[in-house]
Amino acid sequence: MDQAHHTRKTRQITIGGTKVGGDAPVVVQSMCATRTIDVDQTVAQAHQLADAGAGIVRIAMDSEKEIPALKEIRTQTKGIVLSVDLQENYKIADRVAPHVDKIRYNPGHLHHIEKKKSIEQKVKWLVDIARDNDLAIRIGVNCGSVAPAFLDKYPGDQLAAIVESAAYHCDLMDNLGFTRFVVSLKDSDPNKVMDANRRFSERRPDVPLHLGVTEAGLPPDGIIKTRIAFEKLLAQSIGDTIRVSLTLPNERKHEEVIVGHKIIDDVAAGRFISVPDFGAGLNIISCPSCSRVENEKFVELAQQVKELTTYAEKYKITIAVMGCRVNGPGETDDADLGLWCGPTTVNLKKKDRKIGFFAYDEVLPKLRAELDRLIAERSAQVN
Ligand code: SF4
To answer: Using CA positions, which residue lies closest to atom 5 of ligand 1?
Structure first.
């Protein structure tokens, strides 16, 4: 498949056998949504993604219990470049490292554990592991989990907080003489993704960037939202790897990769779509799902929310549907109405206020009632 060759100024690094940055083609990544302990399913999905053209396949790791599974997954995926997401448990990095080609850490999650150690000490530990195991690193900053020190330093300016947090971690890498890293600055709002990546790339034009719009949602809206950001950034030669995050059932997960290549090909050929203004009407966001999803009804629920709410399409309201209780509570705070899925119940929120827990087959009427109430409030404000 043809890929765009950019005149990018970033340095080139290698991740496994894949070149990223500089004059290398933009690499499309994706992430397994299977449970990591389910070796057969995860191996099958890694091949499914690689066969569709994923240059890097990411796997989430939450605990050391998953390490034997990861070891077996590595054995059965020779030739596939594997990245691992350390989520909130960076301390397993040393045992994960022998089985992967890249580790991703989130600067916003380093403070949770080993509170007596400094961020510098923790990053040095990760860099030493990367060096010893011939790995690359991704510094993966996310608007939903910004390091508190940077939120305190830039009150009310989340964009500055995430850009400065990423730049600070780049400085730490520089001080350690480690160059084999990429940065990502992600959000569910394509405009924030554009602003953050533009600002960061002005600040650090040498650092390869991985682009992503998190929780973009179901196709086709999720694809459109992602294209809003990727078209504009790639056209400006910003972005060395990309991931299209879509809410899809496992058997269709590889469509993320196909869409990613299509966007790259279209940008390279000068084909741009016209995109709706998401700021003007109803905006449904839903996470792409991953191994943390505890109830498979999540994808169906996201679809049902979309169908249920079409009557409100002219209202500027954001509804977020998230697949798990780990990221769901925080990632729904900025939505007008939020739903995050637990094993047996769905939690309904209005902004950061909890409304209640409801069974999967009871939550939709509750959502409808809250949406009607919100529309009435907005109408009262206008009149
Ligand atoms: S919200 Fe939870 S289930 Fe959805 S992608 Fe994020 S971590 Fe995975």
So the answer is: 289
